Amino acid sequence: VQLQASGGGLVQAGDSLRLSCTISARDFRTYAVGWFRQAPGKDREFVAAIKWSGGLTYYADSVKGRFTISRDNARNTVNLQMNTLKPEDTAVYYCAATSIWLRVGQNSYPYWGQGTLVTVSS
After folding, report:
1. How far, CA to CA in Å, does 32 sit from each of 50, 73, 118?
2. What is the pLDDT of residues 46-100, one digit of tens each?
3. Are 12 and 84 contacting, i.e. CB atoms less than 8 angstroms apart?
């Protein structure tokens, strides 16, 4: 299983940004994909997850109502639409995959993509 994250960048507070995670796996529809983030000097934290089959979603309280996770079956891609960004959203964002739903701990995700940096200026 391979994951490729993209879409990070530098934006201003209040702006929007969309991250994408492309998953390469023969049975990708059996996985759940999560987004995590790690701010400088902080631990990696859970952001959101989606169960590919059925589209169930779950969000951290800190992003609920601002971020939306979705999947694109045709492109094997999971997107994270981030609206009303705040400086505290600044972090390296990672996507990860697991065969278990619902998990918010990073140790439950055996497959990881590389990170993509999101910087939100005030």
Report:
1. 6, 13, 23
2. 999 999 999 999 999 999 999 999 999 899 999 999 999 999 999 999 999 999 9
3. no
- Rg (Cα) of the chain, in Å, rounded? 13
Residue 118: CB atoms within 10 Å: 22
Strand partners, 21: 5, 78
Structure token digits, residue 83: 């609206």
- The whole-number pLDDT of residue 73 equals 87
For residue 4, list its beta bridge partners: 22
Q: Report how far apart the first and last C-alpha atoms of the chain are (Å, whole number).
A: 37
Compute the distance between CA of residue 58 and CA of residue 76 in angstroms, rounded to an integer: 19
Residues 6+ apart with CB under 8 A from 114: 4, 5, 94
CA distance 49 to 55: 10
Closest CA to 80 of 19, 30, 22: 19
Using alpha carbons, select from 64, 91, 68 the residue that is nearest to residue 81. Answer: 68
